[in-house]
Amino acid sequence: MSTFSELSARIAQVRKTYSRAELTESSAPAQPLALFDRWLQEAVQAEVPEPNAMTVATVGSDMRPSTRIVLLKGYDEAGIVWYTNYHSRKGRELAGVPFAAIQFHWVELERVVRIEGHVEPVSDQESDAYFHSRPLDSRIGAWASPQSQVISGRSVLVANAAKYGTQFLLQPPRPAHWGGYRLRPDTWEFWQGRPSRLHDRLRYRLADSVPGEQAWHRERLAP
Q1: Is the dihedral of CA 207, 90, 105, 3 positive or negative?
Q2: What is the rounded CA–CA span in Å between residue 220 and residue 189?
Q3: Three-state SS at 192
Q4: pLDDT by residue (tens digit) across 85-121?
Q5: With contact defined as beta carbons under 8 Å apart, do 217 and 204 qualify?
Q6: Are 60 and 66 in contact (CB under 8 A)?
Q7: Which class would CATH give 18-132+174-220?
Q8: How far apart are CA 83 and CA 193, in angstroms?
Q9: Element spanning 196, H or E
Q10: What is d(CA 83, CA 146) in angstroms, rounded to the nearest whole number?
Q11: Which of 197, 203, 218, 220 is an active site residue?
Q12: Is the dihedral angle over the CA atoms 148, 127, 105, 94 positive or is it negative?
């Protein structure tokens, strides 16, 4: 038997019992953002590694999905915000199909949050403000990396960083191809691990409401 087959057999037997907490309708607020805020704060307080790391899933015109991990940089009633290169694969896919799914996985707390909705670029003012708050090397990196494009080697990135560092010195402007996205949620799902694989899953779906107001329908899903 090969090493890979042995490892595969062991992986198939990996088990974990989830028993840290529960998620009940009585403890869940009416607004999903309030529950997300509570869970994110608890992840930060528990010193979960990179609690703002989230997987973003998009789909291309060929209907093939793709995922990548980015960092949450803001959230409020308007939506979930992150920043990236608009010419990257995710940027190109969002330009064609402006919908995405986001997932947070806080392993130590046995929790997952899934969010789905429409995605749009944030304003230039928001992108400028965040860009200029970044460390200098990150701002130069936004110019140096032709994200998702094939390059001949790391030397390309090093050379580009040197080029733009020399050109802009301490004041690199925000590239036109770099900025933020905001996902406006229409669906949230909160997953709390429970014993015997009888996990808690609460889903919030955006319901028809008075213009300018958001009403959420909360329901329990079978695990």
Answers
A1: positive
A2: 9
A3: strand
A4: 999 999 999 999 999 999 999 999 999 999 999 999 9
A5: yes
A6: yes
A7: mainly beta
A8: 30
A9: none
A10: 15
A11: 197
A12: negative
Give dist(CA 208, CA 211) in Å, integer.
9
Closest to 55 (Cα-Cα) out of 66, 40, 44: 66
Give the model's confidence band at 210: pLDDT under 50 very low, under 70 low, under 90 confident, else very high: low
DSSP conformational letter for 151: -
**CA separation, residue 160 to residues 86, 168, 171, 176 (Å):** 18, 12, 16, 17
Structure tokens of 69? 């991990």
Amino acid 2: pLDDT: 63
User: In degrees rounded to 5, what are phi and psi of residue 122?
Assistant: -75, 170
Q: Are 17 and 195 in contact (CB under 8 A)?
A: yes
| Residue 27 contacts residue 35 (beta carbons within 8 Å) | no
One-letter amino acid of 43: A
**Does residue 202 have a pLDDT over 80?**
yes
* Residue 61 scores a pLDDT above 70: yes
The yes-or-no answer on residue 139 being catalytic is no
**SS3 of residue 34 by DSSP:** helix
Residues 191-206, mean pLDDT to the nearest whole number: 96
Q: How far apart are CA 120 and CA 94, in angstroms?
A: 8
